[in-house]
Structures are given as structure tokens and as C-alpha cells.
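Protein: Zn(2)-C6 fungal-type domain-containing protein
Species: Tetrapyrgos nigripes
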Amino acid sequence: MTTSLNRASGSGSYSASSRAASSLQRGRACGNCRKRKIKCDGQRPMCGQCVKSARPGDTCEYADAGRTRAQMLEENISRLEARIRELEEPLDENSVKLHSPYVQIQGRSSSWPASVVASTEAISPIASTSASPSPPPSSSSHSEAAFQEEPPADVVRLLLQSFLPHSMEFGFFLNIARFRDSALLPLPLGHYARPAPALLSTVYLLGMHLLAGSSKTDSHNYGAQENAFLSRALLHVANVLSSSHPHRILHGIQSEILLSTYFFRAGRILEGKYHLTAATSLTLGAGFHRIRSGNAGISSSLNLLSVATPFLPAPADHIEEGERINAFWTTFALCNTWTVAIGSPLSSVVFESHGSKIDTPWPLDMHQYEQVEFNFLSQNVQWRSWVKVQEAYGQTILPFQERLPQDLRGSSTVQNFLNQQPSLQSEYSTQAMYAKASILLDRADTVAALFRANVEPEERSHLIQTFTSLDPLIDNFRSTLFTVLPMSRTPTSSPFFGTVLLTHTLAYSATINLHSPFVNDDHRSRSKSLKAAEGCVELLRQVDMGSIEQVNPLLGCLWTGVCKVLIDEISRVKAVGAGWASPASGSSREENELVEMLEKVFATMAVFSIESPLMGYQLAKIQETYQDSTRM
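Structure follows.
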């Protein structure tokens, strides 16, 4: 009887299902059932077949509910593939020529803020990439149009003028003059003679970002334009390796570096980490850590990159090779510094595994690579003027044979520096000193973290040896830094000012971080930490920080560490005055001197927090810490 009941129940169920399937109108089955050519019962939100299969990635979607998710994804893929084909064949006569969705000047309507349009009138025009006049885009299509077009030539010039003077603060390592000249060529977006679309769109984004930050009017319109530029930059950067641009790898690294700094500056840490990790992957994948490697088994030519592939041809000249060298060290330094700044491992973990394999020689400043081309550029008035400017700033321009000899090879560059082994090359350029300071900061923070972790006795013995060798190395580096890159010889108008300020601050911060586990118990560590903090404040006193438009957002993180040292010392001085602590734990500094130094850092951070949400957040947190300490 039980069997009969089961059969009857099964038969009834089957009949109901059959009736539902047979009554379902043709063409009304869900997408999965149509694709698999099986019967669909039409149940919603999921039909019976989709419920039973429950395969990962399956979605039960009906055509009568509008465009399905799969259809939308397919449309996006088709649109991106079409865009990639357009970029790969920019001169194809059959390709669609797009008009500018941004602004139309000289009698044409404009969707740009009036102040931007007015600013471009004073700029000498060059040939525009716009094909024809058109009405301003509607608000619904504005963002989509921003993906597919670049601004007209006069606006491009304005954006470059906004970004390039501050480009080094964002990690720009390419030759500025070459980049600017190629960016302004009257050629379509994606042409090989111009920078890759990923890099151009990212630079336009940063140019608009700086315009929006400095604008007193049209702030809402500027912000909307910046969002459109960001969307376009992310699209192009995501597809940079799919293009056929000859510099897609180098320009892809530069784009990722710029985006990471942009996001860090905005306090969007996760996105900043993502793009910095992408830059690291490209840098190591391209072999930039092995440029001019002297290790056996790595093929290399005398004066070109060690490995050339169809994706990465050999550099055309010393300037291009210098761009690749600087690309590596810029990426490496950013990983070192931001790992410490945000207290989270970044790609420095990857670099740590490559530490003994970094053979690339120390970087030079770009004008030093340009010196290599003297025989070819001696008639170039603009280049000669650039050299005179650098000499006026006190930057040493060394003869070629002293800087980049034909047989120069590198081997374990970072390890040799940490082991204080002499180098056979010049290593005192602005970029080299910055890279070294980042190594010292990262190393100091790593050692301090291990001390806090209460390692095993045998490991602690090795750790103490590391500490005792690293501490004087930092001191010696700082002494050398005062000699070769003194702040007094670097005016705020110098393009190197920001890097020099950052390098000095990194060196002081390395001492602060290294001694941080011992400041509460060891008088020497507390004294060295306090002197390092005072040194950072003295840097700020040497210059008019109000005359500086932009600073590296990393400085906010470093200044926060300086503030913590000063706040702790103020608390100690108060404790001694109140009789809560013995005089031996006091400080030679008076409380009012310490407070004055602290307020100097607060005031400096306040100036730049207006345009950097990250610095604004850090300032608010450290001020809150100080207020809590005064109430205790």
C-alpha cells in the first residue's frame, strides 16, 4: 500500500509539473532552461529546474523582465572589445570618429564649468581632436561619453598645466618634457606617438582633481567632471595590457602608481592598495628589478634593458632606460613607505622575497639621464635652459662617464646598502636618496614590530644585532643627506622640493619607528626619538609651508608619528611637574616648547588637509589624542 501511495503521489506530482510545463507559453522559459533545452515550469523567482541544479553561477532570468544580467554583461564586453579595437587601430578609416562631450569653445556650447572655459582662452590653441561641433550631452549620457573621448586640445593643455608642476608628488617618474610634447600632439587617442590612453586619462583625472581642489567657484561642476574622469581612467587602466601600444607596460605602471596615490590621498586605502599592488606585479613581471643585472645567468646587453620581449622592446635610449629604472624604484619606495604608513602589509612582502635579487642600479634624476643625450640635444634651447635651472637649484649634473658607464652592472643593490658595502656607482641623486630612506623606514618598522612580538631568545639575539647595525646606518644616512641634499639649498620653487622634504622626514621617521618599542623604558631611545621629532619640526620651520600648493599625502602619516612623540613627551613633562614621575624620566625641553612644536605640525597638516581627506582624518585623530592626554 505504501508503494501504491508513493506511485500515486509521484504520478500526481508529475502530472502537475507536466501540466505547468505544457501550459507555459512558448518563449516564456527562463534563460537557463532555454540554453540547456529542457522544460521549464515558469516558477519565479526561480524555476524548479534551476532550484534542482543549483550550479554556481546559474541565475534564473526571464526575458520578459527586461534585459538580463547576462545580456548586460555581454553588451559591456562587446562595448569594451570595440573600444579596444578602436584604440589598437586608431587610424582605421572605417572607425567611428567621436565628438567631444566635454566642452565646445569659440562659439560652440559648453558643458564645462565657466571658469575652465575662461582659463583656456589665454592658452595658445593646438589642433583639436574633436571631429565636429555637437550639442552638449544630456546628463544621462555625460558619464558614458566621458569613457570614450578625451577633452579638446585647449582643455588638455589646461589639465597638463594643472598636473605636471606637482607630478612628482604623485609618483610621476617619466620624462616630463617628452610626456608633455607627446600628449599635445594633434593625433587621435591611442596613437602610438602619444602616451597610452590609460596614462593620458589618469593624468587628465589628476589635472581635474587639482583644479577642483584649487577652485573657489564651480566646485560642484568640477567634482562631477572629476568623477567622470575617474570612471574613464579606471576603464582604460583595466584594459591597458590588452592594447597594442608599444609603451603599455611602462605607461601601465605609471598609471597604477598615479591612481594609487590619488586614492591614498583621498583616504580610500583599499583602492590605493589595489593599484599599488597592480603596479608591483607589472614592475616585477617586466623584470625591472633586474635592469643591468650583473648576476650570471641573466642575459643583458651593455647599455640596454637586460630582457626585451615583444611586449617590452629594448629601450630606445638612455632616457627611456632611465624611465624604467625609475619606474622600479618609485614602485619599490611607495610599497616601503605606505606599508608603514597604513600599518598593513602591501606589496613590500613581494619585494622582500626579491630583496636579494634586486640588481637594478640606483636611480638618477631625470635631468641626469637627459645629460646622456647632450651630443644630440646640444642645440635644443629648451633643454639647455632646463640644465641651467637645475644648476641654479644646486643640483649636481655629473659627467656621463661618472654616472652611467657602458659596462655598469648591478647586484644585490638593496642588500649591499643595508650591509654598508660601497657601491661602484653614483648613489646620491634625489631619487636614490629617497629610495634609500624608504628602505630604512621599512626596515626600522619591521625590526620594531619583531621586538614587540616577544620573539624567542635566540631570535631576539639576532634581532638585537640587526638593531645595533641599523641604528648607526640611519644616523650616517641622515648625515650624508644633510650634505648632498640640504633643505637650505632646495627652494620651494624647485621641482625636487617635495621629494627632498619627504626624504628628510622619512629618515627622521626611521629613527622614531626603530626606537618606538623602548621609549618608555630607555632614556637613550627616548632622547633619540625626541630629537628626530624636533628635526622634523625644524624642517617645517625652514620654509614657508603656506607657499606650497601640494605635498605628498604620505607626509601626513609621518607627521602623525612626530605628533605622537611630542604628545608623549608633553605627558611625561607634566607627570614630572605633578610629582607622578621621577625627574630622571623628565625631558630637557620645557612644556611650552613642546606644545609650540606640536602646534606647528598641527598648523601644517591643517593647510594641506583641505585638499587631502586622508591628512584631514589623521589631523582630527591626533588632535583628539592630544586632547585626551591633556584631560588625564
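Remarks: DSSP finds 26 helices and no strands in the chain.
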